[in-house]
Give the backbone structure.
Amino acid sequence: MCRPDDVALVKAPVVSGKSYDADVLAPEDAWIEKLDHEAFKEDVREMGKKLADNQGPEDLAHLRKIVWWARGCWWAGALTMPFYLNPLSIYLLSIGTMARWTIVGHHVCHGGFDKCSQGTYNRFKFGVGSLYRRATDWLDWMLVEAWNVEHNQLHHYCLGETADPDLVEMNLKSMRETNAPLWAKRLLVGIFMCTWKWYYYAPNTFKALRLHEMRRQGQQPKMPDGSPVSNEYLLSPWPISMTWLTEGPIFFKNVAFFARVLGPYFVRQFVLLPLLVGALLGAAAGYRTLATLVLAELLTNVHSFIVIVTNHAGDDLYRFDRHCTARSSTFYLRQIISSVNFRTGTTGSWFGDLNDFHHGWLNYQIEHHIWPDLSMLSYQRAAPLMKALCAKHGVPYVQQSVWWRLKKTVDIMIGAADMRKYPSQWEREADLTPLDTPNAVH
C-alpha cells in the first residue's frame, strides 16, 4: 500500500490515442496488440499480385471511357459558356477539370496503366518533358513533374508522418493554435477551399521539385543566410519565406514560378479563351466566358478540396512518430488506418462509375494507397476484398460519406479535434527505419 506522501511518485498510465508515449491501449486500439503482421502482409501482397495480374484491355477501355467523360464535360461547358452565364456550363467545366486531375492524371502518373496500355498512358511520358505534353495531357495549376515528387513520393511514402506534405493537422497548425473564434476559423477554411489549388498546391509542389532538382544536381540547399535548410522549413506547407512580398520565395524566383508553373494554365484559361471567344462572338460573349471560367475555377477548387483533403484527416485516423520501410507490414497497415474511403461504386455498373466519377475516384483511398499503381477499375474490384481482409485481421477499415468526412476534416483544421496517435511502444521495430529520431525527414 502506498503512503500518502508516495502518491505523487506513482506514474499514472498514459492511454493510447492522445500520445505516442502511451503504455496502455485504449479500447479503440485493442486490435493493435492482436494483429499478426506476417499473415496480414502476406494476404495484402497476394491480393495485390492477383489484382495486377488481372489487369488488361478491360482496364484500358474503362480508362478511355472516363477520359471521354471528362473531355465531354469540359467541351460541353466550353461550347455553351459564351451564350449566357449559367450553372450548367460552370458545373461541366468544373467537373471536367477536376476529373482530368483526380482520375486521369492521378492514376496515370502513378503508373496504373504502364503495362496494360502498351505505353499509351505511361507515367514517364504523361504531361512531362515539355509544355506541349503538359498542355496535351494535363494542364492545370500544378506542374506535373512537381506533383510527381510531392504526391507520388513524399505523400505516399510518408503518410501520416510529419514528413507527409499533405498532413492537414500539421499544415494548419497555426490556425489550430490561434485563439480566434471557431466561426472565424471556419470562414478562413471556406476561403481556402476556393483557392487552394493555386495558393497552396502549386507553390508547395514546386518547392518539393526544386529541392529534389537541386539535390540531384549535387547542390546542398541552403537558406538565404547560408545556413542549412531547417526541418521546420522543409516540413512547412508554405514554400515561401516570411518576406515573400519584399524578397520573394526561397529556392525559386517569382518569374520562374509563374512562367513554369502558374502561367501556362492562367494564360490559356483566363486570357486566351476569353479573347478568342470575344474575337469570334463579340465582347459580351468574351466577358461571359471569363466570368464562367472564374466561377468554374472556384467550384473545381471546392469540389477537389472536398474529395482530396478529406482522405486522410479525422479523429479516427492515425498519425505516426517514426518512418517505416516501404511495402513492410507496417507500411501496408498505415495506408489503411490513416486513410478513409467514401461511398464506392459497383464494378460494371453505369451508376457506380457515375458515383466514382463525382468522387474523383478518390473514394477508394485505402486500396489506392496500398497499391498505387493499379487502375481505377481494379480499385472497384479490390474494395470489397480489402474490406473483408481487414475484417479477417481485425484492422479498422473506415468508410463514410464524404460529407461526414468533410466535417471531421474541418474539425481537425480549426483545432476542434485531433488525429489519433499510434502508440510507439506497439510499433513493429523490424519495419521501422534505422533513424530513431522522431519525425525525421526521409
Summary: The two ends are 48 Å apart (CA to CA). Residues 182-216 form the longest helix (35 residues).
